[in-house]
Structures are given as structure tokens and as C-alpha cells.
Amino acid sequence: MWMNQLILTNYKNYEWEEFNFNPVINCFTGLNGMGKTNLLDAIYYLSMTKSYISTNDSLVSRFGADYFRLEGHYSRLEQHEKIVAKVQPNKAKVFEVNLNPLNKLSEHIGFLPVVFIAPDDISIIMEGSELRRKFLDNTLAQTNTTYLSHLLHYNRVLHQRNAYLKQIASEKTSDAILLDIYDEQLEKPAAYIHHARTEFLKLFNPVFNEIYQKISNDKETVGVEYQSKLDGDSLLNLLSFNKKRDVFLQRTSVGIHKDDLLFTLEENPLKKYASQGQRKSFLLAIKLAQFTFLKTCLGINPILLLDDIFDKLDPYRVQSLINHLITNFKGQIFISDTHNHRIPGMLSDLGVSHLHKEIIDGKWKK
After folding, report:
1. Which residues contact 145 (CB under 8 A, 6 or more apart)?
2. How many domains does the chain have?
3. CA angle 128, 129, 131 (to 5 degrees)
4. Alpha carbon separation from 304 to 116, 175, 196, 203, 289 (Å, rounded)
5. What is the pLDDT at residue 366?
6. For 354, which of 203, 229, 287, 347 could close a Cys bridge (C-beta 3.0–4.6 Å)?
């Protein structure tokens, strides 16, 4: 699968621009703030129906514009696919596949698999559990529509349960039957999600270990351990046991929304014991293993988006990573870099087909 063309209208700092891409590697260079990341983010948006960078669509529209539109053209399984996203304030987001509007945005997830790697992703290692669950959900939602359906249902009921817990606190009265109904509605999706996450990591860890050792040239053993209170009990039992605590806290304190991943290096917590270089290698390996997992499950190569990940790497490590990507990842790759000639020069020396464009203020240099 590869993206042939992208047309952006009012997307972040792009007023209107049309890009035609190389099926192998596309390298966009330029100073920070010119729009390189925004271009990669637009590609991600057409795959995942949301921005990788911005938490709200209101932050995506170009300043002063009252809408934005993205149009992407793809070659997928020997078929041409046209994807259009139209977003306006106070109106439902519209996604069209070959001119046919989608009834649910969730139907689109996994149709155009994508992996995004950015410097800020180091927060997956260093910060809270929510980001690690997001990595889990992003991967599994692209490969398993049932998982996504259960996750959306779980989050919807969880929101209702938490709202009711706040209502109990404000009104000083409660309906035990209603709380039990919410608990029962959470049980089935939680069990499915817990099982899917457990099975995923059994498949993921060997691939992840192999990739880490290749790109880091190290022999340390790395791992990802799933931490969930559902490992030893059912959600219904946990919710029942914590009911008084939840009422006091005005939120649901147990469930798959509290699960975490423990990243390890030689069986020690990575966050505590790893060097900065080891953390960076770990992050790259976990995202490249995500690429491999998506490819294996879906039977098509995801699009790989590499946003300024070569910053502060010495030339040897940059060359080593480029060689690894060319050899092992046969999908379409998009790279952003602040060095105008570093990556394009390496690709030319290797004889690799690629497109190189410099981005200046939301335009590519003709």
C-alpha cells in the first residue's frame, strides 16, 4: 500500500497544497516550524480520523479558517482508493471512501494502517500509563474491529458510570441497581480487551526483542509486561469490592482503563535504569515492532511516518538506522529532517528511489 497524492486545504499552516509522492521514500526537509510535521500529521489523520499531534480538531484548522479538508489517493491491494476528510466547527466530521460517506468513523480504522514515530514519543516511556495504553489501543484497533468496538463501548459506559458517581456525591443519594447495571455493561468488553492485550504481547515481545538488538547493536534483553488487576480477578468482583471507594473518589478506580505496560531492560524497569540512548533505541524498536505486527495481521505494509527522529544522532547511527529501514521495512516511508541533505544524500549514495522536497512556510519548494 502506498499514498500517491495528498491535497491539503486549511490544514494547520497549509492554505492549499498538493503533494505527489514516491512509493518508496519521501524526505521533507526544512527549518522547524515550516510545516514538515503538519504534513506527516495530515497523512496520519487520513488513516486514523484524528490528528497525532493535536487533541482537538479546533487546533487543526489553519488560523482564521472555518473548515479544513484533506484528500488522499492510495494504491491499496492493486485498487485505487480516494479518501476525503471534511471538518467544520459544530458539524459532524465527514469521511468519504471513494465518494461514499462512512456511517461510523471507527469503520475506517485499520483500512490504511499507519505508524508514527516522533521525538515526543519518549513520553511513552517516561510519563504516565495513559500513553502506554494509547499505544496498545492504537495497535490493536487497527488490526481488530471487535477490539475497537468493545473499547468504544467500554469507554462510553465508563463515562456514564463516572458521571453517576459524581451525581451520587452531589445529591447524597444513590441507586444501587443502576450502578450494578453499569458494572455488568463493563464486564464483557473489559474481559475481551484484557484477553486481546494479553495475547498481543505474547506475539509482540519476540519481534520487539529482535528489532531492538538489530538497531541498537546491543545484546540486552528487553521486554514489555502487561500489568492489569484483571489478571487475577473478574471486573465485577473488583468493582463490587471498590464500590465505596469509587463513590468517595467520584470515579471508577479499577478496570482496563487503569492497565499499564512495564518496559524492561535486562528485567529491570527501563525508566529507572536505561541510558538516554537505550531509551531512544527502545522507542524506535517498539514502534518498528508495531509496524511489523500490523503488516503481519493485515497483510499490507503500513505507512511509516518518521518525524525528526534523526536529531542528535551521530552519522553512524543515522546510517545504521537508514540501512535497517531500507532492508527490513518494505512499505512507504515519510521522513522529516532539519538537515537538508543528510538523509537524501545517504539515500542517493545507496541508490534508493526517493523524493526530496524542502518545505518553506507550508509550501514545498518547486
Report:
1. 106, 109, 110
2. 2
3. 85
4. 6, 50, 24, 21, 12
5. 60
6. 347
Count how many Cα atoms sit within 13 Å of the Cα of residue 252 in the half-sphere of its side chain: 27
> Which amino acid type is present at position 190?
A
- Check whether residue 294 and residue 322 sit in a common domain: no
Is residue 119 one of the residues assigned to a domain? no
Of the three residues 298, 318, 344, the one that is the final residue of a domain is 298
Read off φ and ψ for residue 16, nearest 5 degrees.
-160, 130
d(CA 96, CA 108): 9
- What's the gap between Cα 236 and its chain centre? 30
Q: How confident is the model over 215-273, as pLDDT tens digits? A: 887 778 999 999 999 998 999 999 999 999 999 999 999 999 999 999 999 999 999 98
pLDDT at 337: 95
Distances (CA, A) of 64 to 13, 106, 243, 359: 11, 29, 48, 22
Closest CA to 186 of 159, 163, 167, 165: 159
Predicted confidence (pLDDT) per residue in 121-138, tens digit: 999 999 999 999 999 999
Q: How far apart are CA 144 and CA 110, in angstroms?
A: 8
Q: Whose CA is closest to 310, among 300, 320, 299?
A: 320
Strands of 2-11's sheet in order across: 14-20, 2-11, 68-76, 79-87, 94-97, 100-101
Task: Identify whether the C-beta of residue 310 lies closer than 8 Å to the C-beta of residue 342.
Answer: yes
Looking at the structure, tell me whether residues 134 and 264 fall in a common domain: yes
Same domain, yes or no: 229 and 261: yes
The set of cell numbers assigned to 72 is: 488522499
